[in-house]
Amino acid sequence: MPEPPLYRDAMSRYAGHVQIVTTAYEGERRGVTITAACSVSDSPAIVLACLNVSNPRNDIFRKSGHFALNALAADQVELANVFSGRDPSIPGDRFSEGDWTELVTGAPILVGALASFDCRLIEMKVMATHMILFGEVLGLAYGPEKPALIYMDRDYRTL
């Protein structure tokens, strides 16, 4: 079995679309930059997103019962940095950056994202270091057609 640092080095060569996964619960909003998200099914429409379980602030995703995946464009690197914590110059509410709205569930939807998937949480599974959120897509929003923001080799790329 590979050691975690070797595994992370190998996974850094695996390209992933950069997304901000969001939720809201009892007046609190949470958003995190991730690359571990994908489609599970198109009938019904189901997606999954993976979040680190060691961060206690991520428990809000379980409590809220909903989440949104917001796929970022290449010109949204700053937002990716804010929601990943890579840009510590933004104090307080991360949602003060960007333009946010809601669709069906109340999860924050990024205006101008390439695509946003508003989801009802249908299952959550903890697997080792991460929680896997499975969501039934209840609403969609499309942004402008632009190059996608990708993360690979520990840096942002574009397609």
- CATH third-tier fold name: Pnp Oxidase, Chain A
Q: Percent of residues in helical segments?
A: 10-25%
Task: Tell me the count of domains.
Answer: 1
> Strand portion, in percent?
over 45%
- Any idea what the CATH superfamily is called? Electron Transport, Fmn-binding Protein, Chain A
The CATH architecture is Roll
Instruction: Kindly name the structural category.
Output: mainly beta
List segments where confidence is low: pLDDT < 50 over at least 5 consecutive residues: none
Biggest sheet descriptor: 7 strands, antiparallel
Question: What Rg is obtained from the alpha carbons, in whole angstroms?
Answer: 15 Å
CATH class: Mainly Beta
List the total number of helices.
3
Give the overall average pLDDT.
94
N to C succession of SSEs: HEEEEEHEHEEEEEE
Number of strands: 12
Domain Flavin reductase like: 11-158
InterPro entries: Flavin_Rdtase-like_dom, NADH-dep_flavin_reductase, Split_barrel_FMN-bd
GO molecular function: FMN binding; riboflavin reductase (NADPH) activity
Protein name: Cob(II)yrinic acid a,c-diamide reductase
